[in-house]
Design brief:
Chain lengths: ~325, ~475
């Protein structure tokens, strides 16, 4: 039986969360501008396949990641064009695309199944890795993990601290009002759907080149997209909170593996499934704190009030409702 | 800067919202554009501010023809607009709202804009805290912010579309003072309104629109009678307050506190007797909406008790209230009142009480036809409710009041109706109340309307009832200052 070690546990949580985390960040950016990219799950698989195949053929990891990012951007731009410019349902288009992208990935990737391919190399960060505990948990991974951790703060900083991010939020809140303030809502929604798609593409390649290296059917990334979609809501459309959600989910999954070895009599499926209801339960608890009576209770308690405000999970007001110019 | 509009046309399909409108706005003046609802005022202003494109016609600014592809182009020239439906972001802060549309590039310049905001608020004597979330502000304060933002963008002509709806008398005075100051500085203001009294005290020139065409122009001093004639086809009868003999207790609230809305409702003690017609005054979102929703069982109080006809109703749901013949008409027509996506006929089908397995289509058809003609709704039974105009949606909603209704809770029942239709609606409601011995509790943003109809007034401020008075014992000024929190 595997020995239980906190350092290894947290290090593996950080490592396994990476692709989910990136996918969640990509989707958060897209949804913050008001567009739900429901093609996420299929896109991840297609990008995982693309990344693996390109890296295998060219022997270049960078080309693999770049190719996957481009594919992610292309798929998301299809969602964008159909919903923003052609006024079609984001949900319908995204849903069909997710199925199509998945089948396309299996079809094109079939000749590359179960073969040894390139993989992102382990890259501990000098000096930082020597910090006790933290060093092993955070700084003893490969490049994709560091990139994903950087992206959390980069996305947060961009959305909440730059003028561009303010405009991004404005478009997601009220595209019509954004238009009256010299912002082109359609253009910026398109831009952020594509930007989200680039990140989603990288997330896909992270699966096949690092976290679950290799390609096959199933690859192991199946279903992750749906979880990421839920994590966006869990995180209240805030990159940092979404990251907490992604890590929590990875933690529950990793714990499931441990529990399996501790309680062999319980069917393994129970532990595989447990993270999902637990996430829903957590969401319930968070939203419980948004009840009027609790907000009233916090009225004269600044600390509690701040905490409640930070927990607030309000969706962008115009999420899923594309902007229509003033014509009818 | 002066503006000339030359034969502006704006067509939406077959609908001619503007049909050859021409007039001139002088530099340093306040120009009013008046007309009843649906006369094409808002459309014309959206054309002028670049929000919509015109079908044909010419706009001259200082004699030069201009073409606006977006509000950005208009802003660059110096035309800014305050829209009727607030074009701002309730979820963002005051400062963020101020910065949007002005900030450029990648650098975060919050500090600079904070100072700029402060400079303007001081100058116009507004009081806005930069870090407050916009949704906690009143409509009037949100307007002030928009005006400041437009000025900061360098606006020389400011268009205000119905700015005095939903703001207090105090805020209105503040707004008018600010506008007069701006005009003195050489800026121009275009005021769109259906309230002739506002226009009278503020404006230098009036252009009257009717059905998309200019029907008259006037310089100071105004002949208001004539202006009204130009606005409406026929003169309508102003309703008179009906004589009322209060009956026994109808609805009683004891120390009721409810959360909801912007302010909630705190420690509300009210007894309403049968046959009373009560007007709820107050700024939008001061607790009147919460009061009505509590009185109809939509919101449950967390303390206190509610009783109806002597029965304790505390904590009961809306169905139990409906069994006691209460009816509630919300002001958010498409969000709460009607079901977008369903036709007029389907709305009447939904109201059928029979328990048959099948919808009685013939009856729904006849019901809808009957009510369409009775309530003068411009549509047919197959019309989707969201494609009706605001006024027609309101009429449809009013037609849903069941014949046996005893307690009518009406949230801004004449919203979006022109004066003629509003008067007609009140006549109908007064007759209904007389015939059925029913009680009416209604809200309105217009104090005039409340004083004209209600025999008792409750004034709401910050979630509390701060004044409860018979209409005969009060006047406009008293109610006006109570609305601003001064009793």
């Amino acid at each position: 039986m595997e020995e239980f070690n906190l350092t290894i546990l947290f290090a593996s949580v950080i490592a396994t969360a990476t692709p989910i985390l990136l996918a969640t960040l990509g989707e958060t950016i897209s949804e913050k501008s008001g567009i739900i990219n429901l093609s996420l799950d299929g896109t991840l698989l297609l990008c995982a396949m693309t990344g693996f195949v390109i890296s295998y053929e060219t022997n270049s990891l960078i080309l693999g990641f770049a190719g996957a990012a481009v594919v992610g951007a292309v798929i998301s731009s299809i969602v964008g064009v159909f919903s923003i410019y052609l006024n079609q349902s984001q949900v319908a288009v995204g849903f069909v695309l997710t199925l199509m992208a998945r089948d396309l990935a299996y079809f094109i990737g079939n000749p590359y199944s179960r073969i040894q391919g390139p993989q992102v190399a382990h890259m501990p960060i000098p000096f930082l890795e020597d910090i006790p505990f933290l060093g092993s948990v955070f700084f003893n991974h490969n490049f994709t993990v560091y990139f994903s951790m950087l992206m959390i703060f980069a996305c947060w900083w961009y959305i909440y601290k730059t003028p561009y991010g303010l405009k991004l939020r404005a478009v997601g809140e009220h595209p019509g009002a954004a238009f009256s303030r010299a912002i082109n809502p359609r253009k910026s929604q398109m831009l952020y759907v594509i930007a989200g798609g680039l990140i989603i593409g990288i997330a896909g390649a992270t699966f096949s080149l690092s976290t679950k290296a290799g390609w096959g059917r199933p690859q192991g990334a199946e279903g992750t997209g749906w979880i990421a979609l839920a994590l966006v809501i869990f995180g209240g459309w805030n990159p940092i909170k979404a990251a907490v959600g992604a890590y929590l989910f990875a933690f529950l999954q990793t714990m499931g593996i441990h529990f399996q070895s501790w309680f062999p009599s319980v069917p393994a499926q129970v532990f595989n499934m447990a993270p999902f209801p637990l996430m829903i339960f957590t969401l319930l608890i968070i939203n419980f704190f948004q009840r009027e009576s609790i907000i009233l209770l916090a009225k004269d308690k600044p600390l509690l009030k701040t905490i409640l405000r930070k927990l607030d999970n309000t969706a962008p007001t115009s999420l899923g409702k594309p902007y229509k110019p003033d014509e009818y | 800067m002066w503006i000339e509009l030359k034969s502006i046309h704006k067509h939406y399909g077959n609908v001619r919202a503007n049909n050859g409108v021409s007039f001139k706005v002088n530099e340093g003046s306040i120009h009013a554009v008046i007309g009843e609802n649906g006369a094409g005022k808002s459309t014309l202003m959206k054309v002028l501010s670049g929000y919509t494109s015109r079908t044909s016609g010419e706009i001259l600014v200082d004699g030069e023809p201009v073409y606006f592809k977006s509000p950005e182009d208009a802003t660059k020239i110096g035309i800014g607009m305050l829209y009727q439906d607030p074009m701002d972001f309730p979820q963002l802060t005051v400062l963020e709202n101020f910065m949007l549309g002005q900030i450029k590039g990648f650098r975060n310049s919050e500090k600079k804009f904070k100072e700029k905001l402060k400079k303007y608020t001081d100058e116009l004597e507004f009081d806005l805290s930069p870090n407050a979330q916009l949704k906690t502000l009143t409509i009037g304060e949100r307007q002030q912010l928009e005006i400041i933002r437009l000025l900061s963008l360098g606006a020389k002509v400011i268009i205000l579309d119905e700015p005095t709806t939903g703001i207090s008398v105090e805020q209105k005075d503040k707004l008018f003072a600010a506008l007069k100051r701006l005009v003195k500085e050489g800026k121009s203001v275009i005021l769109v309104s259906h309230k002739i009294e506002d226009v009278e005290i503020l404006c230098d020139k009036i252009t009257v629109l009717k059905q998309g065409c200019v029907t008259g122009e006037m310089e100071k001093p105004f002949d208001l009678e004539k202006a009204l004639m130009m606005m409406f086809e026929t003169e309508s009868k102003t309703p008179v307050r009906s004589k009322i003999v209060p009956g026994k207790k109808h609805i009683e609230m004891k120390n009721v506190s409810v959360s909801g809305g912007r302010t909630g409702l705190h420690n509300c003690d009210v007894t309403v007797r049968r046959n009373e017609i009560i007007g709820l005054a107050g700024l939008e979102g001061s607790g009147q909406g919460v009061f009505l929703r509590c009185a109809t069982g939509l919101l449950k109080p967390y303390s206190g008790s509610v009783s109806l006809n002597g029965k304790n109703m505390t904590g009961k749901n809306i169905l139990s209230y409906q069994k006691e013949n209460t009816v509630f008409l919300p002001t958010n027509r498409l969000e709460e009142g009607l079901i977008p996506g369903l036709t007029i006929k389907e709305h009447y089908s939904l109201r059928q009480k029979s328990r048959s397995l099948f919808v009685d289509g013939a009856k729904a058809s006849s019901d809808s036809k009957e009510n369409i003609s009775k309530y003068n709704i411009k549509g047919d039974p197959r019309t989707l409710v969201e494609s009706l105009s605001g006024g027609n949606q309101q009429r449809l909603l009013l037609s849903f009041i069941p014949d046996d209704a005893e307690l009518l809770l009406l949230e801004n029942p004449t919203r979006g109706l022109d004066i003629g239709s509003a008067n007609w609606v009140w006549e109908l409601l007064q007759d209904f109340s007389k015939d059925n011995n029913s009680t009416i509790i209604f809200t309105s943003p217009e104090i005039d309307e409340i004083l004209m109809i209600a025999d008792r007034v409750l004034v709401f401020f910050d979630g509390k009832i701060i004044k409860d008075v018979k209409t005969d014992d009060t006047n406009l000024d008293e109610i006006g200052s109570a609305i601003a929190g001064k009793v």
